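A reminder from the course coordinator: this example appears on the midterm review sheet, so study it carefully.

Given structure:
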């Protein structure tokens, strides 16, 4: 989701600051997580803040409104992130861990454990105006990932391409991902998701439009197929 929001550092250009702070706020017409709607195909409000050290270490948080079927009636998702990023020429390595926190879920359903941790790693390579990124994500077996088969783990990989048209503010992107294991994160199934999108950035504002789809099927309490393809619009502001 953050790929659609440019986040310039607060440090002045030309200054070698030890720390930089980046962030942004976004409104999306549908919050899709690996192709699965987390908002019953409705709007969501999202925000993010990241503090980075010049060594490559960073911490951050990302949050979004969600529908109540995601985590036992909770209406928020808050991701706590810590990682390390290193650029070597045109190649960038990024590793870290994300803790998914759903405030209030345990109070609404006593004893329900909705929170879980996931490790990630990615390598990206630029080829002129185009960048390719391969990512892998692994969540060890945790009770929050139980989809009726015991404590499942979750393994997911994706490949994304992105680029921009010089001097236009227009960006293009495409991606494909696959869930190799069944867990709560994958709606209890192995499936493939994909997307294509376009963005337009002017100053701190980014407008985006993308098509997201999967080869799976899952239904919310309102009867909507939350894995069915759809168009997602975004409006983001960076700071």
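Designed residues:
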């Amino acid at each position: 989701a953050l790929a659609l929001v440019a986040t310039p550092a607060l440090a002045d250009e030309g200054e070698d600051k030890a720390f930089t702070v980046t962030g942004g706020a976004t409104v999306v017409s549908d919050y899709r997580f690996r192709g699965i709607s987390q908002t019953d195909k409705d709007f969501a409000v999202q925000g993010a803040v990241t503090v980075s050290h010049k060594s490559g270490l960073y911490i951050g948080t990302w949050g979004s409104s969600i529908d109540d079927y995601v985590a036992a009636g909770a209406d928020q998702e808050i991701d706590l992130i810590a990682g390390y990023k290193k650029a070597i020429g045109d190649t960038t390595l990024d590793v870290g861990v994300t803790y998914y926190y759903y405030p209030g879920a345990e109070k609404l359903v006593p004893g329900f454990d909705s929170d879980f941790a996931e490790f990630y790693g990615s390598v990206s390579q630029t080829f002129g105006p185009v960048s390719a990124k391969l990512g892998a994500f692994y969540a060890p077996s945790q009770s929050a990932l139980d989809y009726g088969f015991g404590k499942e783990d979750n393994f997911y990989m994706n490949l994304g391409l992105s680029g921009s048209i010089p001097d236009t503010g227009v960006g293009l992107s495409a991606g494909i991902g696959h869930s190799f294991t069944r867990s709560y994160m994958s709606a209890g199934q192995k499936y493939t998701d994909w997307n294509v999108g376009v963005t337009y950035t002017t100053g701190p504002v980014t407008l985006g439009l993308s098509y997201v789809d999967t080869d799976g099927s899952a239904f919310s309490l309102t009867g909507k197929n939350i894995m069915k393809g759809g168009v997602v619009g975004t409006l983001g502001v960076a700071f």
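The helical segments are 105-108. The radius of gyration is 18 Å.
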